[in-house]
Design goal:
With 303 residues, this protein is of the alpha/beta class. It has a single domain, classed as UDP-N-acetylmuramoyl-L-alanine:D-glutamate ligase. It is 35% helix and 25% strand. It contains eleven helices and 13 strands. It has a nine-stranded mixed beta sheet with strand order 5-4-1-8-9-10-11-12-13, with helices on both faces. A four-stranded mixed beta sheet has the order 3-2-6-7. The structure holds adenosine monophosphate. Residues 9, 11, 13, 27-29, 81, 97, 123-124, 149, 231-235 line the site of adenosine monophosphate (AMP).
């Protein structure tokens, strides 16, 4: 079992979906990732919060396998984001993004983090992702997330990141934008040529498509009757995926496929309630049962 280092946002989120509304709840890509991954292994977090992030909010990390030595608390306000979802929950509008303390953030890895073998660069400025990569010593497996904002805004720095990662986790729209190809199989080939051997394309309620070298593996999303809020589902997927992989002995095709199911299982919990709420009440037993439900959902006997 190996520890994972992650860098990304810790946030106050405000969320509106057709099923309800929440204001100023703890969110952020690094938060969803770390809580999900901590079900499988130890997580070392690099992030920043403001003075308004009180002990009460810190409790979401308490009692979990999450090392906060690299979480900076600085004067100013915590990163804030507001999103509003349409009826089908597959499209959302960002109402605002206030970078606040993130504006001046420079990731500094504590000495105890530098030799971490698994690294997840959550969705932040690719320049900061590079700064983190410059501070880690020969990691065994590095994965990154990104978004349309960086694909358009900082293409050169993003290309430099892609040249240095083993895996990229993005959604279908971003895969098309990054590759300039509408067809996802062609898009995957173009993106793999940019660097990452392993590409995971998240397709919301349609599940995920993974390609590693020339092979493909796909997983559906769990059919759920109650879906409240998809915020953080992608980061939660990444947490389950990386957490499982870091807890496996070797990175084989079989381990990668199981990691995709672990990620899908964790993401299926995240959407059941608002923000982090469902993940915070989750038990290891719940995770095992959902993993088994995925096996039943996808298993069939060939003739
Ligand atoms: P997801 O639904 O997987 O896209 O992740 C949503 C989470 O990402 C929310 O908790 C937000 O706080 C966070 N987030 C949204 N926009 C950004 C951004 N530009 N940089 C970093 N984190 C963000």
């Amino acid at each position: 079992m190996h520890p994972i280092l992650t860098v990304g946002s810790v946030a106050f989120d405000s969320i509106k979906t057709p099923f309800g509304e929440r204001s100023r709840v703890v969110g952020g890509a690094a938060t969803f990732f770390s809580v999900a991954a901590s079900f499988f292994t130890d997580v070392r977090m690099v992030a920043v919060v403001g003075e308004d992030f009180a002990d009460e909010q810190m409790q979401v990390f308490g009692g979990r396998r999450i090392d906060l030595t690299g979480l900076q608390r600085v004067p100013g306000e915590t990163f804030r984001w507001k999103g509003e979802y349409n009826f089908d929950l597959n499209s959302r509008e960002t109402i605002y993004t206030h970078l606040n303390v993130f504006d001046q953030f420079r990731p500094v890895l504590p000495e105890s983090y530098r030799a971490t073998p698994f690294v997840f660069l959550a969705n932040i400025h690719p320049g900061l992702q590079l700064e983190v990569l410059d501070q880690v010593q020969a990691p065994r497996f590095v994965a990154a997330d990104t978004m349309n904002f960086w694909i358009d805004g900082t293409p050169d720095e993003l290309r430099a990141v892609l040249g240095r990662v083993d895996a990229l986790v993005i959604n279908d729209e971003e895969a098309r934008q990054l590759s300039g190809e509408a067809n996802l199989v062609k898009a995957a080939r173009v993106i793999r040529n940019m660097g990452p051997r392993l590409l995971i394309i998240k397709r919301g309620e349609y599940g995920v498509l993974m390609t590693r070298d020339e092979a493909f593996f796909a997983a559906p999303a769990m059919p759920l009757e109650d879906v409240s809020d998809p915020t953080g589902a992608g980061d939660t997927f990444a947490g389950g995926f990386m957490g499982y992989l870091a807890s496996a002995d070797e990175i084989t095709d079989a381990a990668v496929s199981r990691a995709i199911i672990a990620g899908s299982a964790m993401a299926s919990f995240a959407v059941e309630d608002f923000g982090l709420d469902r993940l915070l009440s989750l038990t290891q037993d719940d995770v095992r049962r959902r993993f088994d439900a995925f096996k039943r959902l996808t298993h069939f006997e060939a003739l």
